[in-house]
Specification:
Layout lengths: L1 E7 L5 H7 L5 E9 L2 H19 L5 H17 L5 H6 L4 H13 E3 L7 H12 L13 E4 L8 H8 L15 H11 L3 E7 L6 E2 L2 E2 H10 L1 H5 L7 E5 L17 E3 L10 E9 H6 L15 H5 L8 E2 L15 H11 L6 H17 L5 E5 L11 H4 L7 E5 L2 E2 L1 H17 L69 H7 L12 H10 L3 H17 L5
Parallel strand pairs: 1-2, 1-4, 2-3, 4-5, 11-14
Antiparallel strand pairs: 5-10, 6-7, 8-10, 9-10, 12-13
Helix pairs in contact: 1-19, 2-5, 13-14, 14-16
């Protein structure tokens, strides 16, 4: 028995991807909706990938390898905007069919009151194959995360700077009601709603918006004016449920990805709602997401091809190695060697050793798409990242940096190697302090962003990968001083646990944004395991 999945505010499809790989139920995304053009293109491409995977389950091994090789070769050659069209015209029936199914599944438009009927009609149409006698299936699963800009701490800080900003007039605060409308109309057996931690403290007219959201989610029909037979039980996947405990506190809905084996500290609010009749049939019991040790950043990105950084337009005509002939480099080394802190001279030695190795290395700057002769295998979760025969390494290209920043990156990564932590501005040699109005060399304690430059340490999990990585790589510096750069899209995707076969379309800024906004598929797979178990015990999944 297949379980139809509706994916709203889908982004590039991290939640849907994770559920598709859960082993407790046969989850099938019937429709995914995303407004951003390039995220929707990525979503469509991945939907085609999942369809092709299913179609090739009955093919011979050699045939499957050949078809995947053709798939990868087309993606390696095609302009991103033409990727799906080129695949559809490949001349291979299974690929063409997969593309057709994907275009049926993935839809680009903006959810909101003006498009509510269109969304409803599309969803109902996609559910038709699962209906009997015109009745909606009882085992629908709804997933998604309404946009977070109105709830995030960064977004709220920006809004406070706008004189005419009124939270109650910001439609983004209420986009969850589109999600609510779908719950009320289609009565999913289970829904999973994800958002940033800031939603717990966001207020409208002095009241916590999260409390209103919880109240609405318990009885969506009452809110939307749709007759309701059963309400929903809200469950914390961190705490589980045994049928007797009171409803979880707000903080109980926070899921910490690093405690679940992921290579990233990512704290998000995830609400699991179970229809009351399903909850009862399942024994009023829900498992927790079992804790396990975090995976280190180095274990999932160190096998990827080494890259040298690229220079921004300000360094046009110069070699990136010329960065280490700037006066600031020698000045920084001298200051570190004269420091009273005994470890600083070792930081300087690491910087000098890295520069020597840079001159000897033959690293390229990468490419958006390449066909490596030997595909890299991560030390951890290899079967997760390499989910089929892969011939294409996409989205692994160094971004462009200013020469002065490369010197700072070198210091930051060398400091991280030596000290086991990322430096703060107070640790910087004076010569490397950024020339910024908020940084006074004589009063560093007054600086606003004291940890503006952050190295992602090799032997521990990374910090949260956010969409901001698309605009600023300073917080995502590679731990290897000899590479001296910020993380690539592929490295960020590895930290987000996207398989390497997951190709992100659009320009590089869009790719970074898609990765940062997504739900980690490995986390979604863990969630799918719990949801599938509930459905099986309720007799709604095979």
């Amino acid at each position: 028995m297949s379980v139809p999945v509706i994916d709203l505010f889908a982004g590039p499809g991290g939640l849907g991807e994770g559920l598709s790989r859960a082993s407790t139920a046969d989850f099938r995304t019937v429709i995914s909706i995303e407004k951003d053009e390039m995220a929707a293109r990525t979503l469509t491409l991945r939907a085609a990938h999942r369809s092709l995977k299913r179609l090739l389950e009955k093919a011979g091994k050699d045939e499957a390898i050949s078809i995947w090789a053709r798939w990868d070769a087309i993606l390696a050659d095609a302009p991103w905007k033409e990727a799906i069209d080129r695949l559809a015209r490949s001349g291979i029936d299974s690929i063409a069919l997969a593309c057709h199914e994907a275009r049926h599944e993935a839809q680009q438009f903006e959810l909101g009151p003006d498009h509510r009927k269109a969304a409803s009609d599309l969803i109902r149409d996609r559910l038709t194959p699962y209906m009997a006698d015109g009745r909606l299936p009882e085992n629908i699963v709804l997933i998604g995360g309404p946009p977070c800009q109105a709830y995030s701490l960064v977004g709220r800080a920006r809004n406070r700077g706008k004189e005419d900003y009124r939270p109650e007039q910001d439609h983004r605060h209420f986009l969850y009601k589109e999600y609510l409308q779908v719950i009320a109309e289609f009565r999913p057996a289970v829904f999973v709603m994800e958002n940033v931690k800031g939603i717990l403290t966001s207020t409208v007219e002095g009241a916590l918006i999260f409390e209103s959201i919880k109240s609405d989610l318990r009885h969506p029909g009452r809110v939307c004016g749709i007759p309701e037979r059963e309400g929903y039980v809200l469950v914390s996947l961190a705490k589980g449920a045994d049928g007797v405990e009171p409803e979880p506190a707000a903080e109980d809905f926070i899921i910490r990805a690093e405690q679940l084996g992921l290579p990233q500290a990512r704290h998000r609010v995830i609400i699991c709602g179970i229809r009351e009749d399903v909850f009862t049939k399942a024994g009023r019991d829900v498992d927790t997401l079992a804790a396990t040790l975090a995976t280190s950043a180095g274990a999932v990105i160190d096998d990827l091809p080494r890259l040298q950084p690229a220079l921004s337009w300000r360094g046009k005509g110069e070699s990136w190695l010329s960065s280490f002939r700037l006066p600031m480099f020698d000045e920084a080394l001298e200051e570190l060697k004269q420091s009273e802190h005994p470890d600083m001279k070792f930081v300087a030695m690491r910087m000098e050793a890295a520069v020597r190795s840079m001159g000897e290395a033959k690293n390229g700057s990468g490419a958006d798409r390449c066909l490596p002769p030997i595909y890299p295998q991560p030390k951890e979760h290899a079967s997760w990242y390499i989910d089929r025969p892969v011939h294409l390494l996409a989205n692994h290209e160094s971004r462009a940096h200013m020469r002065e920043d490369l010197v700072r990156y070198l210091f930051v990564s060398a400091f991280g190697q030596q000290m086991g932590v990322s430096p703060r501005l107070a640790d910087f040699p004076r010569a490397l302090l950024p020339n910024h109005r908020n940084v006074d060399p004589d009063n560093i304690s007054a600086a606003i962003f004291k940890d503006r430059f952050r190295v992602q340490l090799k032997d521990t999990h990374s910090m949260t990968v956010t969409s901001h990585i698309g605009k600023d790589g300073h917080a995502f510096i590679h731990h290897d001083p000899s590479q001296c750069r910020s993380l690539t899209v592929r490295e960020a995707a590895r930290l987000q646990t996207f398989p390497d076969s997951y190709v992100f379309l659009g320009n590089r800024t869009s790719q970074y944004t898609q990765v940062g906004n997504a739900v980690p598929p490995m986390l979604a797979c863990r969630i799918g395991g719990v949801v599938g178990d509930v459905l099986r015990r309720a007799g709604l999944a095979a």
